[in-house]
Amino acid sequence: MPEAPHTIFLEACSTAVNIPPLPAGTHAWIITDGKAGDQNPCIGVAQAMGLAYTLKPVSKHKFWDLFAPHVLNPQQNPLTKGSAFAPPFPDIIIASGRRAVAVMREIKRLSPPTFCVFLKDPYTHNSGADVIWQPLHDTHVQPNALQSLLSPHHLHIQHASTLQEIKTLSILVGGNSRHTTWAPRDSTQFMALLRHHAAHPDVHLRITTSRRTPEALQHALLTLCEGMEHSCWVPDCGLPNPYVELLTQADALIVTADSINMLSEALAVGVPVYCFAPSMKAGRVRNSVAQLMAAGLVQPLTNALNFTPQTPLNVTPALALEIATRYCEVIDCRAHN
After folding, report:
1. Counting beta carbons within 10 angstroms of the beta carbon of residue 37, is it exposed (0 to 12), middle (13 to 18) or buried (19 or more)?
2. CB 267 within 8 Å of CB 12
3. pLDDT, tens digit (0-9, with 9 covering 90-100), for 200-244
4. Ramachandran region of residue 261, left (φ > 0), alpha (ψ -120 to 50) or beta?
5. Rounded distance, CA 150 to CA 315, Å?
6. DSSP state, 105?
7. Which of 6, 55, 178, 312 could be bridged to 270 by S-S, CB 3.0 to 4.6 A?
8. pTM surpassing 0.85?
């Protein structure tokens, strides 16, 4: 994969990576507004680095959010009495999301030794970050950013699939977002493909949906599973989401193309990954799905399925290695000055 100018491209790992040990007592803050798509990758990187960490959520505010990432909400100022970000400051900050930028920048100003890492585009060249990671599909790339085709994540998947005759086809269904819209024709096409695979006596469908999944599509998925060996989880059903279980037990995966995080997690399992793309707006997510398909990492969903095991891929260790190496270099430089 060619590197963009002034960036470093990180390859996803299929084997263990030796992360350099950090100094004893190294502690991190994870700063996000709590969205899973921002917080979970930060947690994954911290865990891969072997870091002790504290979650430090940035609260949402109708007025001050209008000025993010450029202006700091006074209530989030580390020097404000009662601030959740008051000193003593951590050794490392791992942050993501535009609401987190101003807080991280202010901590960096007050505490230059704090090593700051930002995941995704901070939407400013004045973020205070020592390291920035961005997905390859970003059109606006910060100077000297780290980039990768896959996204980091926090899942530790121990694949439990066996060579049984009955195959588990796990299906991760997202829904409407600012990047994708499920038109009726999309749901009709998707359900036709699932009905085809559900009719196979040696294939069991296990489905999980999202709060973003259109209600009509949820209903169609539940109807598909009625009276059969298939199962479908929907929000508010009273049971925990079996998302991780579906990954660990899958012999093949179908993932809707509205979430690159879901596709990245699926590729860490080590089974064939099929992608169904609803109506997608031109932009980053559609570009990323096209790149994944061009690289042969995911296949478009059709009537044909393959259950041959694949090499699991995970970019999180590679990103953690790069960050840990740079942090150790900074610590070593300080020790000799």
Report:
1. middle
2. yes
3. 999 999 999 999 999 999 999 999 999 888 999 999 899 999 999
4. alpha
5. 6
6. H
7. 312
8. yes
